[in-house]
Write a structure and sequence with these properties.
Blueprint (H helix, E strand, L loop, with lengths): L1 E8 L5 E7 L2 E6 L5 E4 L4 E4 L1 E6 L12 H10 L2 E6 L10 H14 L3 E4 L15 H6 L6 E2 L9 H12 L4 E4 L12 E2 L2 H6 L3 E2 L1 H18 L3 E3 L5 H12 L4 E5 L27 H13 L4 E2 L28 H10 L6 H16 L16 E11 L18 E11 L2 E5 L2 E2 L6
Helix pairs in contact: 4-6, 6-7, 7-8
Length: about 425
Amino acid sequence: MTFTLKNISLASGLVTNIAIDGTQVLSIGSEIHGDVVDCTGLIALPGLVDLHTHLREPGKEDSETVLSGSKAAAKGGYTALSAMANTSPVADTAGVVEQVYRLGKEAGLCEVFPIGAVTVGLAGERLAELGAMAQSAARVRVFSDDGKCVSDPLVMRRALEYVKSFGGVIAQHAQDPRLTEGAQMNEGAVSSRLGLAGWPAVAEEAIIARDILLADHVKSRLHICHLTTKGGVELVRWAKAQGINVTAEVTPHHLILTDDLVESYDPIFKVNPPLRTNEDVLALRAGLADGTIDIVATDHAPHPTEDKECEWSAAAFGMLGLETALSVVVKTMVETNAMTWEQLANVMSVNPAKIGGYDRQGVPLAAGSPANIVVIDPAQTWQVDKEALSSKSKNTPFHGYVLPTKIVHTVYEGIFVVKNQELTGLKYE
């Protein structure tokens, strides 16, 4: 398929034409090839890459499937997802990660990279089949027990040592389990007022500090999942100043939502790790802007209605993120002049692809680059309607919000999987 995105802006602001032939960008400039798609007023970015997605399949298909999650990803401008391991069965063997990888290929809407579990059954006791998963067809390079912390320091050390041999990375859910037993929300003034068990910032920061030192000791790669606290930002900043090989992510919801929303007792705001204070939110934004935090990752966590529309204590932790992520980052970072479009492309595409080792993703747009592109309209706003989302679940905290920037087209490997804001059906039917 050959076509040209005409009169489109790059992240740099340059207005040009992008000609695509097959799976690659043919040219950027004045040339026009094949069908013409008018993109006046629109911006082209490398397809977004999510390093932290819960697709639930196998075993929890009432929440999400690889196909439904891929549809949500395409609508959100993503051309690559990283599927977390807390499925049923857990993705702790080559067989399970290869199943997820195959399901992603069958969906065909974006590239799906399975993340392997660090420990067997996410139990934190014995290392999973890290080598077998790395050598499988899925070529797993990112390993995480996300949802649970690898709390045993010896197990964490061994994991860091093991993945070092093949260039892997351990993505840690930084949460000391003893300090968060029964925790329901951020520990602070609001939790005291509401009488809900608090989740102290130190529970996150203690694990971050320990793992930074372990990563330095064994000279391996550490990635901190969903950073939420001001103190955590400072720890990562210190580690980078020392030359320690650590990267970190922040979720869109932690850039905008605060713990005072819990006063509604609406479980839509129940998430792990919890919403923090406004001071933390501002520190996260500053850390993302100055490069301390490397990427934005959605932590897309779908749940069926019955698991969220219930009393707070019984509700599941988690929020949707794929279809709203870009707009939330634009609202919090671009519209506040904290970040340019080029910087947004770095934290939502280029950097996560580098961390994950995804060769055909996050490549700056140029002649010869893979044709994985998201085309956005920065002038348009849209109102989030949970019923209109492509995810199988509806647990978005942004229902009713008016957000900036619409995804107009998503091109995956040279094919429109979303065109004029609609899924095309070319690949998955």
